Amino acid sequence: MSTIQRVNFEPFSDLLKTQVRDFPLADKTIADPLNANAFVDGEWFVIDATGKAARAASVAGAGNLATQTSYPIFAERGRSDVLAMSGRKVPLIFIGRFEADTRIFDAAVALSGGAAITTVGQPLKVASITIGGKIVCGLVGAVAADGEPIVGRVTRLPATNGGKLRFVSASTI
Predict the structure, then answer these.
(1) Model-level pTM?
(2) Is the pLDDT of residue 128 over 50?
């Protein structure tokens, strides 16, 4: 079973103090679970100029960085309520801090002055990465001065967390 067929995003902290909001998708076709480019749970999205949710970085190839604040999807691929909502809306964890485990990361990637994920407390940013042969928007290592938005910090490394990266989100606007 490939990574993107499992539960990829699990909140570790209480989500009562966060705000999950539904945003219409800029590309409604990615809600279809049979689409080769369908989103996966835990993938990161941005809010575009029209107020719609769009992938945080281009998935035309791996290595594209997100240039604005990104938010994780809190829905599994093919979830019926997402498919049934008018405008194909997806729930994003939009406001508030949280801690979560994710499989949507690439610990080895070091882009644009970033660094491989190796230490607890290390900042994280979002980029297009390849997981199980599919390109998605996930977490990669960062350094404080590399310029792209920091979305969180590592709280537990995959080697000590069953292969999942645990992180605490950065403050959101």
Answers:
(1) 0.88
(2) yes
